Amino acid sequence: MTAICSPREVFKEALRHGCASIIVAHNHPSGDPTPSKEDIRVTQRLIDVGDLMGIEVLDHLVVGSQGYISLREEKYI
Questions:
Q1: What residue stretches are annotated with the MPN domain (predicted)?
Q2: Which residue among 13, 51, 55, 59 sits deepest, i.e. has the most Cβ atoms within 10 Å of its Cβ?
């Protein structure tokens, strides 16, 4: 299963509230929190857009029934 992530939707509330940074999180219904290639690609896209907007992406958490993985801790960010 693949979901589309729009940077516009991700940053809309951050802009509305004047946030300087965000943490992104999503779940994997399979239960395995291992980030996919698409998760990593989307994370980099969000970082790039955030840089243009002056909003830092601090982390991206992938959650599953087996726990979670921080893309920052795994050095993807």
A1: 1-77
A2: 55
